[in-house]
Design brief:
The chain is about 20% helix and about 40% strand. It is of the alpha+beta class and about 100 residues long. Strand 4 and strand 5 form a beta hairpin.
C-alpha cells in the first residue's frame, strides 16, 4: 500500500475548478496507480475533511514535435491522472492558509 502523502501530487488550480469550489469540489493531480478509495483516504487525512465522492480522469501522454535548425525534435508529454473530490456540504479546503 502506498503512503497517503505520496498519492496526492498537487492541487489543480484552474479557472473552471475555482468556480466549482462553490459546489465544494476540488481537483488534485494524483498518482496514476491510485484508486478512488486511496484518494478519499488521503484527502480526509491531509485536510481533515469528509469526502462525499471522488471522480477520476486519466489523461494519455501526447506526442509532441518541433522543428529546429538541427532538425525535427520529437518527444512525449507525460500521462497523468486527475481526481475531482466533492466534499460534504459546508466543508472547505483552504490551500492558501499556509503561505
Amino acid at each position: 500500500m502506498k503512503i497517503l502523502s505520496e498519492i496526492l501530487l498537487k492541487p489543480v488550480n484552474t479557472e473552471k475548478l475555482n468556480q466549482q469550489e462553490k459546489l465544494d469540489r476540488y481537483g488534485f493531480y494524483v498518482q496514476r496507480t491510485a484508486n478512488k478509495l486511496q484518494i478519499r483516504k488521503a484527502v480526509e487525512e491531509m485536510y481533515g475533511v469528509t469526502v462525499a465522492s471522488v471522480n477520476t480522469i486519466r489523461y494519455a501522454g501526447k506526442n509532441k514535435s518541433r522543428i529546429t535548425r538541427s532538425g525535427i525534435i520529437t518527444g512525449k508529454k507525460n500521462a497523468y491522472k486527475k481526481a475531482i473530490v466533492t466534499l460534504r456540504k459546508g466543508e472547505k479546503i483552504d490551500f492558501y492558509s499556509n503561505i
